[in-house]
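Q: Could you fold this chain for me?
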Amino acid sequence: MIGSRTFEDEFAYGFDDPIETVSYSRAVRISGWLVNIKAQPIHGIRLIARNGLWRRRITRARRKRSRPDVALEFPDVPDAHASGFLIETQLRSGRNQISIQVQDEQKV
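A: Sure. Below is the predicted structure, expressed as structure tokens.
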């Protein structure tokens, strides 16, 4: 559609380790990097864990972690050197579905 945008048109990202689809530990640790390839600011990253038995759990990522490797890959993106993030949380017992959300330059 004209005027629409998708995540892939605006962002590039990577995870440092594969994300396990099945885990028997409640501790979750996800690290990686995220840049807006149009050099717009990113205002936040968060993980949302949903479990049918409990209320959803929201955990904000720790951001602005040093990533010189990403800065080399994206030299035209001013914040690429600090594009790393880390999410650490404890999931609730049972099956959890997680998603990661990004707050863009418009705080959406």
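A (continued): The chain has a mean pLDDT of 89.
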